[in-house]
Design goal:
mainly alpha
């Protein structure tokens, strides 16, 4: 109980929230700690909430599913809670995933880990290296996960896979007249200059 109160004090200080909001978070932490479908203690749940708050999530996002999904991600992949919190907030920020949809995001991430050679640490590196560019050019989160799982056998690490996927996307913007002409020939770029890959 003392550890929980200390963590909540830190959450309040870091997030600059009211006593009422701290009370709501404390209730959530208690619920997570007694949820029979989760493997997490109240103190671990509090640490996860603290990590999400430190990463910039608002109280409502934490309450609306981000905290529970972080614990689910940790349980499903064997990853540490802080790492799961980082992955969750990165995915939400990059791909504009709402808190209420984070359980679906967990399913996608878990599928990559369970259906490829990449462990959760590799996934975190792939997201860090390739997620930003993928999201900026319009790749959906589900498609990002599919691509990473599909190319995993070709790379030694998630970092290499994410970097290579990023470079692939960047190269779809022609850097020379020859590349532009070849992309037009292949139908990637149309005569009016639009990029059919990105439009698709």
């Amino acid at each position: 109980a003392s550890d929980l109160e200390t963590t909540l004090d830190g959450v309040q200080a870091n997030m600059q929230i009211s006593a009422d909001e701290v009370g709501r978070l404390k209730e959530l932490i208690t619920d997570l700690g007694v949820d029979p479908n989760l493997k997490v203690s109240a103190s671990e749940a509090a640490a996860a909430v603290e990590m999400l708050g430190r990463n910039g999530l608002k109280v409502d996002d934490i309450l609306d599913g981000a905290a529970r999904s972080t614990v689910l991600l940790s349980n499903a992949t064997g990853g540490a809670l802080p790492q799961s919190g980082d992955i969750m907030t990165d995915a939400m920020s990059l791909f504009k995933i709402e808190a209420k949809d984070t359980a679906t995001a967990v399913n996608g991430i878990t599928s990559v880990v369970n259906n490829s050679k990449f462990a959760i640490g590799d996934y975190a590196l792939a997201l860090a290296q390739g997620g930003g560019v993928a999201a900026s050019v319009g790749v959906e989160f589900e498609d990002f996960n599919t691509a990473i799982a599909g190319i995993a056998p070709l790379f030694a690490s998630g970092s290499d896979a994410g970097t290579s996927f990023k470079v692939f996307l960047q190269r779809l913007v022609p850097a020379s007249n020859k590349a532009r002409d070849e992309m037009r020939r292949l139908g990637i770029i149309t005569e009016d200059g639009s990029n059919t890959f990105f439009d698709a």
